[in-house]
Amino acid sequence: SGDPLHENGDAVAELKEEEIALTAGPGKRASLHDRPTVAKQSIQRITLLGKGQFGEVYLAKVAGLTLPAAGEAETVAMVKALGSRDERAQAEFQREVDLFGKASHVAVARLLAVCKEPLQMVLEYTDLGDLKQYLKLSRGDDKEIKMKPLTAQQKLSVCVQVAQGMVHLSSQRLVHGDLAARNCLVSSDNSVKISCPGLSRDVYISPEYFEHRQALIPLRWMAPEAVAEGDLSTKSDVWAVGVLLWEVCTLGELPYAKLKDEEVFRAVQSGSLKPLSTKACLAHVSKLLQRCLAPSPRDRPSFPDVLHDLSSVQLDTSV
C-alpha cells in the first residue's frame, strides 16, 4: 500500500511470532494469588502521586512487609490502587502485576505485595521520586531546591541503568508499554529504577497523555505502529527509550512541545512527524536515539544493542 503505518504493522505482526507482547513470559501465568499479601488496614496513605482513568497511585507506609535487611516495622512504598471494575482496567492491572512480579533486577522497581480488597499493588519507591521531576529540578530553576546540573556522565548513567532494566524485561519477554522519564524512579545514591505507569499527577490534564479510542495514551512516547494498530512490543518499548534518552538530554523537556496533541497525532498517522532535535545530546547518543526512533520496528536496535552503545559511550573518557 506504501503506507508506512501499514508496513510497520506487518513488521510487528511478524515480530510477534517471537514475542508475547503485553503478557508474562514463558511458563505458568502469574496470579494475584501467588503474591505476598497485605491487608487494607496495613496501608497508611501519605500523599497522592498520580491518578488516571482507572485508579490512583499514592505514597504510603505499609506495615507487615518482610523485606531483607529492612529492620523496620513499616516500609514507605508506592501503592497503585485499581478503582474500576472495567475489564480492560482489570486486565491491565494483572499485566502490571505480572511484569513487576516476574522482574528481578536492580533497575526495575520490585513488587512487594498485593492487597486483594480493594485491589492494590505495593511497589518499591525511592527517596527522590520520579525521574521527570528530578531532571527538571536539575535545571536549577527552582529557587527553593538547589541542585547542581547533571553532568554528561550522570546523564549517561541514567540512560545506562534504564537500558539495563529494559534488557532484563525484554529477556523475560515482558513489555512495559508506557516507558518514560515520569515512570522511572531515582534515589539519592543516583540509582534509577523503571516503575509502573501512573506516576503523572493527573493524566486528564497532563500534556503527556492524549485521548484516543476512549483511552488515554502516552502519544508523544508511542511508536507509529502502537498508535495506528495498538501493537505494543519490545520494539515499541525501544522507540519509547529513544524518547526517554531525549528527555534525559534535555532535562525533562516535553517531546514535540511546539506541536499540539492533534498535530502530533496527524503527523504520526501520515508518517510526517519530524525527528526530535538532538542538539542537546552527545554525538554517540544522538545516533543511537535516531536508530531507536526508526519508523519501521525492524530497523530499531535490540535492548542489548542499546545497552552496548550506551556503555561504550560511558567508558569513553574523552566525553
Give the tags.
319 residues; 9 helices; alpha+beta; five-stranded antiparallel beta sheet; Transferase(Phosphotransferase), domain 1; disordered C terminus; Phosphorylase Kinase, domain 1; 34% helix; 2 domains
Helix content estimate: 25-40%
CATH class of the largest domain: Mainly Alpha
Strand arrangement within the widest β-sheet reads 1-2-3-5-4
Number of strands: 9
Tell me the number of structural domains. 2
Shape: globular
Remind me, CATH topology of the largest domain? Answer: Transferase(Phosphotransferase), domain 1
Low-confidence stretches are 1-30, 200-205, 315-319
Query: Helical element count?
Result: 9
In the CATH hierarchy, what is the superfamily of the largest domain? Transferase(Phosphotransferase) domain 1
Classify the secondary structure makeup into a structural class: alpha+beta
**Helix-strand pattern, N to C?**
HEEEHEEHHEEEEHHHHH
Strand content: 15-25%
Distance between the termini: 45 Å
Which CATH architecture of the largest domain is right?
Orthogonal Bundle
- Report the average pLDDT across residues: 82
The largest sheet is: 5 strands, antiparallel
Radius of gyration: 19 Å
Active site: 178
Keywords: ATP-binding, Magnesium, Metal-binding, Nucleotide-binding
Domain Protein kinase: 43-311
Binding site for ATP: 182
Q: Could you characterize the architecture of this molecule?
A:
- The N and C termini lie far apart (45 Å).
- β1 (43-51) and β2 form a beta hairpin.
- The chain folds into 2 domains: 40-124, Phosphorylase Kinase, domain 1, CATH 3.30.200; 129-312, Transferase(Phosphotransferase), domain 1 (Orthogonal Bundle), CATH 1.10.510.10.
- It has a 5-stranded antiparallel beta sheet with strand order 1-2-3-5-4, covered by helices on one side. It has a two-stranded antiparallel ribbon with strand order 6-7.
- It has helices at residues 4-15, 87-102, 131-137, 152-171, 224-229, 234-249, 261-270, 283-292, 303-314; strands spanning 43-51, 55-63, 74-82, 111-116, 119-123, 184-186, 192-194, 210-212, 215-217.
- By secondary structure, the protein is of the alpha+beta class.
